[in-house]
Design a protein that fits this description.
Length: about 500
Amino acid sequence: MFLSFSVWFKRYSLLVWVIFICLLTLYVKSKLNSNDENSVEGFFWVFSDAHVDIHYRNDGDPVTHCRNVSLTNKTRIIRKFGHFDCDAPRELLTSAFATAKNIDSKVDFVIWLGDSTSHRSSGGDTLIPVFENLSQQLRKFFPKTLILPVLGNHDIVLTANRSTRFRDFYNQTQMNLLLTDTDARRTFLKGGYYSIRFQTLRNNKQVMLRFVVLNTGMFQPYILDFFNTKDAIEQIEWFNRTMSEAFELHDRVLLLSHLPFGINEDLLYKFYNLRYEEQLLTIIKRYSSIIIMCLSGHRHYDILRVYSSGNITMGILNHAAISPVGYLTQPSIRKYSYDKQRLILTDYEQYSLNVLEAERTQNDHWSLTYRFSSWYYQRKEITSESLFHLVQLIRRESFYLKRFLLNKHHSGKRLIKNHDIIHSLCALTLFNFDQFILCSRILKNRNYSYDNLIGNHSIDINAHENEQWREYRMVYLRVLLGVFIFVLNVLIICYRISVKCASRGKE
Ligand SMILES: [Zn+2]
C-alpha cells in the first residue's frame, strides 16, 4: 500500500504541483477582483480644450498657423503632434485619448470640458465635423464608460437657428453616442445643459454622485447677442431647481463648467456677464455644502482658485488644455482619484506631451508631469477647504508660490513680472473687481518682490522634473550624510572596543 502511494506520488507529483499552483492563482485572482469591486477608490479622466483645426497640415508653416506650406523654407519639418503657434491636429487628440486608455481604461467616467474646435474657424461647417469626430473618438476609446460632455464657447454655432440650435447640434454631431440619459438629453436639446445622477458603489443606500453640467458660453458678455435673454435666465432657474433637488436627495455635486468663475487676471476682464455670475454664485453659496468641486477649462492654464464668501467655500480646478496653442501649456490630460464612499476628490495625476521632443523624435511619448499630493505636499484629499488652505500657503510661502507659478506658466514664453504674480495671487480668491484692484494695490505698496522666482523657464526643459529632481537631490544628500555619520560612529565604537581589548590583553 505504502509502496504504491510513493510510486503514484513520484509519477504524478509534477501534475499535483501544477494543479496546486493553478488553484492558488485562481484564488488570489478572485480575491483581488472582489477587492476591486469593493474598493472605495475610483478614477476618472478629464480632457479639455483640444481646439482641433481641420486645416492643420503636418508640414504647415507655424507662421501660417500650420495651415499652409512655406514656399521659402525648403526643409519641411513634420509636426504630427502640433506646434505652439497653431491649433491642434486631429492626431494630437487621438494621441491624448489613446494615452489615457493605455494608462487606465477602467475609469468610472470621463469628463470632456469643452472647446473642441479651432479658434480660427467658428462656423458650423467646421465645428460640426470636428465635434462629430470627437464624439466618435471618445466612444471608440471608452466604449462602455459614462462620458460627460461639456459645451465650450467654441462649440456653439452662433449663426444657427436660436430655437433649434442645440437640438441640431446634438443630431448633427452624433452626441447620441455620448449622452443617452433621457432627462439629460431633454434639457441639453433645449439649452446645452444637463444633470446626471451616478451610483458609485453597489449599495442602494449610498449617497449619489450628481454631475451638474452648465452651458457657460451662454453667459459670456460678448456672445449675449446671439441668444434670447430668456435662454440664460431659464438655465439659471434650471440650475437653482437642480441644486435644490440635489440638496433634498442628499446628492453630492460635481459642478462642470467650461468657463471658470472670477477674473482673468492677465487680461483683466470677467469671464461672465456680471449679473449672471452674481445669480449663479448666489445659488452656489446656498448649496455649497453639497458641492464637491467645480471643474473648469477655457483658460488652458493649470491653475486653481477658491470662491469664498463668509464661511462658505467652493474650489475651482482649472485644467490645462490638449491644444498647445499660444504657449499656454504643453498638451495635458488629467486622471483623478476619488473616494467612492465619501464622494470627495483624493488626488490627481497630470500627464503631458513635450511638443518639441515629439517634433524631434516623431513620437508621442506622454509622461507624468506631477501628482497633486506630492507636488503641493498635501495629504490625499482635495476639498474646497483644503484648497482654501493651499491658497493661503501659496500667498504666504515662496515654496508653494513657485510651484503654483510653475504649473501656470511652465511653457510660457514671456518673463513673469512682479505685477503678473501679484495679480495671480489676488485672483486666487477675489472674484469682484473692486476687491481685486484693492488687493493688487496693497501688495504693490508693501513692495513685495517676486521677480526672479522663476529663473530659467524654457519650453524645452521639463520644469516639473527639474524642480522635483532638485528636491530628490536634497533628500539623497541628507540620506548620504546620515549614512556617513552612522558609519563613522560604528567605526569609532569598533576602534574604542579594540583599544580596550588590547589594553586588557596587556594587563
Ligand atoms: Zn473656451
